[in-house]
Design brief:
- By secondary structure, the chain is α+β, with helices and mostly antiparallel strands.
- The chain has eleven helices and 13 strands.
- The chain folds into two domains: 7-159, 2-Layer Sandwich (60s Ribosomal Protein L30, Chain: A); 171-346, Phosphoribosyl-aminoimidazole Synthetase, Chain A, domain 2, CATH 3.90.650.
- It has helices spanning 22-29, 75-92, 113-129, 180-188, 194-205, 214-218, 230-242, 259-264, 270-279, 291-297, 315-322; strands spanning 40-42, 51-56, 59-68, 96-106, 133-141, 146-155, 171-174, 220-225, 244-249, 283-284, 306-310, 330-337, 343-346.
- The protein has a seven-stranded mixed beta sheet with strand order 8-11-7-12-9-13-10, sandwiched between helices. A six-stranded mixed beta sheet has the order 1-2-3-6-4-5, covered by helices on one side.
- The N and C termini lie far apart (48 Å).
- The model has no long low-confidence stretch (mean pLDDT 96).
Length: 347
């Protein structure tokens, strides 16, 4: 390719910001049948990150799928981000990914074949780094480029994390900084340069692999990852699933370089608004935040960090263990007994 193709210029919206709005999706899921089976341990009822099926007394199978349009311009980076994002759901359940199947829609004849080769190379490298295997997939010809993966993983029953196990007294740990949504929007519209986008790309490419020893793994009572519904959307699912209130301190939430500035400039996506509509009635304290702080809490993340409800007695040990790989890891909230609102925000 003589002139690099900017993939984000080929789509109207990219990454997890292209998700169907959370409220619309919840209403749709409520029309679907629920399934009662002794081996179906996690289904779609609590908006958890993946489905979980009991294989035997020692093994649970985790299944998930994620795909989206380009959120970055470089094809290899896009492949790596798409793979990391899909793998993250298995990590968020406490598991280990083993196999991945690609889900690809490619504009044949519009984008050159080299774009496809680079995308899949980036994805294959990320999947291999996770210790998993790319074993096949399905592709179609389409006008709009889309890439993702169906990932299968496994976990011992004693190591399973859900979004429904948070306990009053826990602290809430976030492993990656926030801001990919506003920064990706700014880059797509040429409001920031490539160098300003680089930290967000590296964050999105990073696997959410924590490699916790057994004692620290057990100190995590609930978990999810932060993606298209923003920090507040996914925190709301934790709070609802666990019947607790999350008391969140906006000033403690780490932000990617430049994210505060783009939010102050009003560089937002449609998802900022749709997530605000989804969470607003469930959140107390919004009036105490400035506009940029609020928008950061609903910023749609692509391949965002893990959100972990941790025993406070082990929180410092967990932070020390993961800080080398995740230098921005922070305690951002306290989990308290359920109150009038599932979420309380303060500066």
């Amino acid at each position: 390719m003589d002139t690099p193709i900017r993939l984000t210029k080929t789509v109207s919206k990219g990454g997890c910001a292209a998700k169907i709005a959370a409220g619309t999706l919840r209403a749709l899921l409520e029309t679907l049948p629920t399934h009662a089976h002794p081996d179906l341990l996690v289904g779609h009822d609590l908006f958890d990150d993946a489905a979980v099926w009991r294989v035997n007394d020692d093994t649970l199978m985790i299944q998930t799928i994620d795909f989206f349009t380009p959120v970055v311009d470089d094809p290899r980076d896009f492949g790596a981000v798409a793979a990391a994002n899909a793998l993250s759901d298995v990590y968020a359940m406490g598991g280990t990914p083993t196999t991945a199947l690609s889900v690809l829609a490619f504009p044949v004849g519009i984008l050159p074949d080299e774009v496809l080769a680079e995308m899949m190379a980036g994805a294959a490298d990320a999947i291999a780094a996770a210790g998993a295997f790319l074993v096949g997939g399905h592709s179609i010809e389409d006008d709009t480029l889309k890439l993702g993966f169906s990932v299968t993983g496994f976990v011992h029953p004693d190591r399973l994390w859900r979004n429904s196990g948070a306990r009053a007294g826990d602290v809430l740990v976030l492993t990656k900084p926030i801001g990919t949504g506003t920064l990706a929007g700014a880059r797509k519209n040429d409001e920031i340069d490539e160098a300003s986008m680089a930290p967000a790309i590296e964050s999105m490419k990073q696997l959410n692999r924590l490699d916790l020893p057994s004692d620290l793994h057990a100190a995590v009572h609930a978990a999810t990852d932060v993606t298209g519904f923003g920090l507040l959307g996914h925190a709301l699912h934790l709070a609802r699933g666990s019947n607790v209130t999350i008391d969140l301190r906006a000033d403690d939430v780490p932000l990617l370089p430049g994210a505060r500035e783009t939010l102050e400039r009003g560089i937002l996506t449609k998802a900022h608004t749709s997530t605000t509509h989804y969470v607003d009635e469930h959140v107390a304290g919004r009036g105490g935040l400035d506009a940029a702080a609020w928008w950061s809490l609903v910023d749609p993340q692509t391949s965002g960090g893990l959100l972990l409800c941790v025993d406070p007695a082990r929180a410092d040990d967990l932070l020390a263990h993961v800080r080398e790989a995740f230098p921005h890891v922070a305690v951002v909230a306290d989990v308290v007994a359920a109150g009038a609102h599932p979420i309380v925000v303060r500066s």
